[in-house]
Amino acid sequence: MKTQEFDVVVLGSGFAGSLTAMILQRVGRRVALIDRTRHPRFAIGESSTPIANMVLRDLAKRYDLPRLVPLTKYGTWQQAYPHIGCGLKRGFSYFAHEAGRTFAPSLTHANELLVAASSHDRDSDTQWLRADVDQFFCAEAATFGVTLLEDCAVREIQHDRVGDWSIDCQHEGRSLPLRAAFVIDATGEAGVLPHSLGIESCGEACQTHSRAIFSHFRGVGSWHERLNDLGGNTQDHPFHCDNAAQHHILDGAWLWMLRFNDGLTSAGLVLDEAKHPLDQSLDAAAEWHQWIERYPSVAAMFADADFSPVPGELIRTKRLQRRWAQLAGEDWALLPHTAGFVDPLHSTGIAHSLCGVEHLCRILDREWRAETRLDSLRGYGDVVAKEFDLIDELVASCFACFGQFDLLVVASMLYFAAATTYERLRCGGEASIAFLGADRKEIRDLLHTACKEVSRQASTPGPVDINQFRCDVASLIAPINHVGLLDTTLANMYRHTAAPM
Ligand SMILES: Cc1cc2nc3c(=O)[nH]c(=O)nc-3n(C[C@H](O)[C@H](O)[C@H](O)COP(=O)(O)OP(=O)(O)OC[C@H]3O[C@@H](n4cnc5c(N)ncnc54)[C@H](O)[C@@H]3O)c2cc1C
Q1: pLDDT digits 0-9 by tens, 7-44
Q2: In sequence order, what are the residues at sequence separation of 6 or more whose Cβ sits closer than 8 angstroms to the Cβ of residue 155?
Q3: Which end of the chain is more exposed for a tag (fewer CB within 10 A), N or C?
Q4: pTM, whole model, 2 decimals?
Q5: Which residues line ligand 1 (CB under 6 A)?
């Protein structure tokens, strides 16, 4: 077959690859978007955040993509695209369970933490049903003229010289040769390009060490109702705690629950591998049931639950942490979810991916033929690496506190300090800030010191003077605490943390 030539080939048509392809086509590049499968297909990673909404909104504005704007708020999404699967996410909720015991809510909310991300349902954050959302992004890319190749297997990638790639694909039963000046890998865990370039993997160095078991379910009971039945004071909650990225904290593990409008629930266990290494003699279903049954109030929510037809089973991962040692070169780049991954805690993935799309597209728009391009691409790789280091540090310090919920609350506040600082800087007009401010030394240093303090405290035997510790950490992070985090008078109920939009 005749070789097809492109400026850019994007491998992987998840929302991030599709959006990148769409933007680059929009600014005049000739783009091909390749996926080994076709939409709609199951994908995990569904809980969006205010940062993701801000970046998507700005990208839509900058590159004149008005059809993406409704996806940045729950209200406009429901109005414009009620058929695209979505859930209401008003914030983050955390509940500490004890093995073998029914959850016992306290008047002071000592085992609960709720952090608002939005003030109203209308302007709220969302859970993305990725099968629908990714299909939408991919179809949009095609309407802008991106050449879409689905069910297309990449057989070989050859880097002939700088600016000249040959990609041999198998498409619709035939060999399809492509040439491209630039290749972007958005294949996530598959990492087609780093494998083909022989780049070293360095994920083992991550501090976080976790694995996951997850699926989509129907018939999962409401935690909000269960809490009320158990005597919980949900009237104090800043939002309905089911309309959230719900984190149930277990012994050396946590369980996410994300609810969609049509009764579907995404649920997944994330296990600290140091405490709970994989036991191959136990299959995923047996391991899942063991965990759920150990926690009576969690088990009650799953009493009438069944798998949704897609994916129809539990998916068990190996270690989640992965990283590549080099993230960009002269004529190639990895999007963040290909570059690496840490853990789903606090839902950093979608926002991180969008920050990467924004950064990379800015370079390939403004510096396509410029001499500065290589330096800028190196800068992109450095920034994504710093973002991973920071996410890893924030997540690992939380894992260190599982089993000590009052310390976990302090550790979680470090993520919220970083996220809300980013939101405020961005709203103040700083559009090129790295995800969570990871490119700012002063932010990184503060968070590094605070994370170290939290982890040290978590591993110190004996009782903790939690009030004193909370005050110490509050003083440490004061320069980036713009929303009253670590306020003892709030009893773990943060309603004034909603993002400025
Ligand atoms: C267990 C888990 C839970 C998560 N939870 C959250 C969360 O709650 N919130 C959040 O923000 N993030 C979460 N994430 C992260 C989130 O999944 C990613 O940020 C997001 O999926 C990135 O999207 P993407 O489009 O870059 O890549 P992906 O979604 O990974 O898409 C990759 C695409 O590449 C295609 N592909 C794969 N191999 C090939 C190949 N050889 N050739 C061509 N195409 C190929 C695939 O078919 C797919 O379409 C989670 C991740 C994991 C692992």
Answers
A1: 999 999 999 999 999 999 999 999 999 999 999 999 99
A2: 168, 169, 170, 175
A3: N
A4: 0.98
A5: 11-17, 34-37, 43-47, 154, 186-188, 190, 192, 212, 214, 268, 320, 335, 337, 341, 344, 347, 349-350, 353
